[in-house]
Every structure is written in C-alpha cells, then in structure tokens.
Amino acid sequence: MKIVFFDVDTQLDFLYPAGALYVLGAESIVTQVSALNRFGASHGMPVVSTMDAHTENDPEFRSWPPHCVSGTAGQQKPASTLLEKRAVVSSSPQDFEIHGVQQILLEKQSVDCFTNANLPALLKRLGAEQCVVYGVVTEICVKNAALGLLKSGRGVKLVKDAVRSLDDAKCAIFLREFTAAGGQLVTAQDAFSLPSQI
C-alpha cells in the first residue's frame, strides 16, 4: 500500500509566538513534524507539505489577520522540516515534475488544500492509497485535508501528537467526525512503525 505523508501548514507565521497567526503551543510539534518528514523521505514515502501562499490583499484576510504572504519570512517553513529534494506546486493548473522529489510544497490560498487544482492529479501520480496527516490548525486546515483525503477514498491516519488546535471544542467535534468517517488516530511512534516503501 502506497503511503504519503501530509505535513499541513507548518509555517513560521503559525508555529512561533512572533508569527502573524500564532497557534498556541505549535512550536512544540516542530520536532515531531521534522522527524515525520525525514522518516517518510528515508522510507520511500513522499511528503506533501501544504503551504499558505497569500497575496498582500488576499480575500482570506477578510476572515483572518494577514499571514503567510508569499515571499515573507513568516510564509517559510522551519529549515528542519524541509527535505533536500523538493518541488513547488502552485495552485493554478500546471504541468509539474516530481520525479526523484522527496517533498512537494503544495501552495494554496484557502484553508482547504483541495482548492489547489493540481492536488487530485498529484495524489494519483504519487499512487497515494494511505495518507498520514499532521500539522496546524487541527480543526481548520488539518480537518479539510484529512476529510478531503477520506472523501477521495483514501485511508487516513491523523498523528494526534503532531497537531495543534486553536479551539479545543471544535477540535473535539472534528476528531469525532474524522473517526466516524473511518479515519484513524495514531501517534508519531505508530507512524514510525510503518513499513518502508523502498
């Protein structure tokens, strides 16, 4: 079974107190995210890292404070979460090359990664059957990724000790919805026990 790791929005603006849209405690998952990304890459499992890539006057800023504006420091990922061989896939339909790539930086301008027109084709090209999901924010962007992947017919494991939420009550509702839809809650240690794809 082909496994793909999904690292959701682990960007500086979300992860650290100086960030424009800091998620309380999110810095504590950076070590786990880095380890998961490196485990995936070293065991033949591609890593899809979703990334907000907003314009300065992005429509999303009517709902949220400005954050992750393309080209700013806050839009970047911590260096420890980046893999050596990576490619960027922007939101608009495009031909993309991922041969030999360990990490795909999937840009988006919405809380839903499936608004990236290239994601269905990317998942098909990766042969993704099972997805391991982690990152921020649990009840927003992680939720959209996890439920969207489930709706696409893929198995989804959510790494419960490598996510952070803004609203614990909404997070609890999402986790119930996720497991009711067939998703699995796992730990990072469980993920590290997945069989190598090499």
Strand content: 15-25%
Number of strands: 7
Largest sheet: 7 strands, parallel
Biggest sheet, strands in spatial order? 3-4-2-1-5-6-7
Describe the global form. globular
Q: In CATH, what is the class? A: Alpha Beta
CATH second-level architecture: 3-Layer(aba) Sandwich
Instruction: Give me the Rg, rounded.
Output: 15 Å
CATH topology: Rossmann fold
The number of helical runs is: 6
As a percent range, the share of helical residues equals 25-40%
Spans of at least 5 consecutive residues with low confidence? none
CATH homologous superfamily title: Isochorismatase-like
N- and C-termini, Cα separation: 12 Å
Structural class: alpha/beta
Tell me the number of structural domains: 1
Report the mean per-residue pLDDT as an integer.
Answer: 95
* N-to-C SSE string, H for helix and E for strand: EHHEEEHEHEHEH
Task: Sum up the structure in keywords.
198 residues; alpha/beta; Rossmann fold; seven-stranded parallel beta sheet; 6 helices; 21% strand; globular
Describe this structure in words.
With 198 residues, this protein is α/β, with parallel strands linked by helices. 29% of the residues lie in helices and 21% in strands. Strand 6 (155-164), helix 5 and strand 7 (184-186) form a beta-alpha-beta unit.
